[in-house]
Design goal:
alpha/beta, about 15% strand, 5-stranded parallel β-sheet, single chain, Rossmann fold, 4-stranded antiparallel β-sheet, about 45% helix, binds flavin mononucleotide, elongated
Length: about 450
């Protein structure tokens, strides 16, 4: 990095521009926005610049100048306690520009010479101005065109009233800090605000609505925190039976259930074989209907097969997106798999010949799937306890996967499991963090004696 960007408070500071043309005008307009008081020295000053200088509270010296007279002017200013924080040369006369440079250096003043990068202490960046949010772009004068192209790109990306979001978030910061004291939780909450429906409401100018959504989210977040604390407390305080685990052991069980996450971001650290086998053995401890143990696992070790699987998932991802109609764009932004990044890729499948197992399946044949799901959940929990991430991917056409894996008729692939090291575990389900959906409390799922129609109904995707 050739120069370091610093955002400078310039309100009421004084600046001297030498030159009265177009470049001087552009610089003066930019500085006026920052509240700078601008003086101009130039034999000729264009009218618009005169207006800008007047508005800034500065003055114009419409005279010829040389280094001696410049020095004198600055010294007078210093005497009058009006130090210039910066001087700018914006003339097409190289000798004058150099005068300005030397004069600034002599008086320890920052200098910018518009036409000569080598005579600049400071450069003017291209600015994307979004109210309270400012983005400055510079490539140290190497290519002004490239700077402009990048500026246009950024302008297209950042909504006009992005600054309003900064103001909104700035206002609620202290309150959120008080309500969510845990730093990691708070950061993840604030990120969800910056990316989700609260931000959308602010961008469309609906500040009241944004406030309401924020309140609802805060209420949910704080209830979840209280519930988690209560669970921990009840584990410790409850009386134990003769067969119960110790409070510490119980606490670990609930902790792993609460902190297990479906992971889709992996780093490329290879998974230790012992840990991998231990996760598989956790699957094999699962309960199963009639002890049929209907789980089969295909470990993928060939890169080309992994890529074929990725291809099949990518195809289904597009079809799922199309089926989601107006939520298509939103869905496509979600990361729904980590197939190419995870350390180990495993396909969990049901075997052929399942019809021979009648115990517990005569009326409910899907109990084989339920049993395999128990095995997968065991893997998820074991992986989390080992500090390893696992993600369950179901976005695929089973027939395509059967072809790729050469699976026999009657067998059925159920899950693509991505297993591997992660940089961090998501604080909450990704679909919550991404504002795809919301979670419901246990009470909504719990009926008494008979079915409560309408209670606990899930949101649909669309
Ligand atoms: C049967 C099943 C299939 C799933 N399939 C996918 C999938 O294809 N892609 C994905 O991103 N997440 C998938 N998930 C993960 C869920 O979205 C995730 O479990 C849910 O949002 C809750 O998050 P959590 O597991 O971190 O608590 C699946 C989960 C289950 C149980």
């Amino acid at each position: 990095m050739n120069s370091f960007p610093l955002f400078h408070q310039l309100n009421n500071k004084h600046c001297l521009i030498v030159g009265g043309g177009q470049v001087a005008l552009r610089r003066a307009q930019a500085l006026l926005k920052a509240g700078v008081c601008i003086d101009v020295v130039s034999p000729v000053v264009r009218e618009q610049l005169v207006d800008v200088v007047k508005e800034s509270g500065g003055n114009i010296d419409e005279s010829y100048f040389d280094e001696i007279s410049l020095n004198k002017k600055i010294e007078n200013k210093i005497l009058a306690n009006q130090n210039y924080f910066m001087m700018m040369a914006a003339t097409d006369d190289t000798a004058v520009n150099r005068h300005v440079y030397h004069c600034a250096k002599k008086n320890n003043i920052l200098v910018n010479v518009a036409s000569d990068q080598s005579l600049c202490d400071v450069v003017f960046p291209a600015i994307v101005d979004r109210g309270a949010t400012t983005i400055a772009i510079s490539n140290n004068g190497l290519s002004p065109v490239l700077t402009r192209v990048l500026k246009e790109k950024i302008e297209r990306l950042i909504p006009d009233n992005y600054g309003d979001l900064a103001v909104f978030m700035g206002k609620c910061r202290a309150k959120i800090k008080k309500l969510i004291p845990n730093t990691r939780k708070r950061v993840s909450f604030l990120e969800s605000i910056a990316k989700g429906s609260v931000a959308e409401a602010v961008f469309s100018g609906k500040i009241d609505e944004a406030e309401k959504i924020l309140q609802a989210k805060l209420a949910q977040e704080t209830t979840e925190n209280i519930a988690a604390e209560e669970t921990q407390q009840s584990i410790i305080e409850d009386p134990t039976t003769d067969f119960s685990y110790t409070a510490e052991e119980k606490s670990a069980i609930y902790k792993v259930m609460a902190e297990r996450r479906d992971m889709r971001h992996f780093n490329n650290k290879p998974l230790d074989e012992k840990i991998f086998k231990s996760i598989l053995s956790a699957a094999h401890m699962a309960p199963s209907v009639g002890l049929m143990q209907p789980w089969r696992f295909v470990r993928i070790t060939h890169q080309n097969i992994r890529e074929d699987i990725f291809g099949a998932v990518s195809e289904e991802r597009k079809l799922t997106a199309d089926a989601l109609d107006e939520r298509k764009g939103e869905f496509l932004k979600l990361k729904v798999e980590g197939i190419l990044q995870c350390g180990e890729l495993v396909i969990a499948a049901l075997p052929e010949g399942r019809e021979q197992h009648v115990f517990g399946r005569r009326t409910l044949p899907e109990m084989d799937l339920a049993s395999l799901s128990c095995a997968i959940q065991n893997m998820w929990l074991a992986a989390r306890a080992e500090g390893i991430g696992m993600g369950w991917v179901s976005l695929f056409d089973p027939k395509k996967l059967m072809e790729i894996l050469n699976m026999p008729k009657g067998s059925w692939p159920i899950a693509i499991l991505c297993i591997g090291h992660v940089d961090e575990f998501y604080e909450k389900p990704m679909l919550l963090l991404e504002n795809w959906t919301t979670e419901k409390p246990l009470e909504d799922m719990l009926f008494e004696n008979t079915w409560h129609s309408g209670k606990g109904q899930n949101d649909t995707d669309d």
